[in-house]
Amino acid sequence: MDLKLYIRAQWDRIGAVVLVALGGLALLLGWIGVSGTPLPSEQIPYVVSGGLAGLALIGVGATLWLSADLRDEWRKLKHLEDAVREASEIHTAQLTAVTPPTNGSKPRRRPVKAASARMSDEIA
Length: 124
Prior knowledge:
Layout: H1 3-9, H2 11-35, H3 40-95, E1 98-99, E2 108-109, H4 112-123
Antiparallel strand pairs: 1-2
Helix pairs in contact: 2-3
């Protein structure tokens, strides 16, 4: 598969992985900074910059990944909807098809209204 095409198709998942990796790196660097100094007043900047920024990046990355999964589910649902619509159109076309006469009389149409009324009564 072409790498450029793959990146265009999966940009949100790639972005999510990059953001989570950057968030993990920020947490690691913050932890290294905190562990290197004994004074709490010197540790606070590491906690704020490394810890909070790392958690925020991981949160945005996770949200982006979930968004990609939802997009896939909506695409699957759209395919199912199209298949049901196509099957419904075929079924409707079959119901309204002209039946050939068996006794030499005029062709007649099947009663579509009665069938649809019967279906709506069954649903209700």
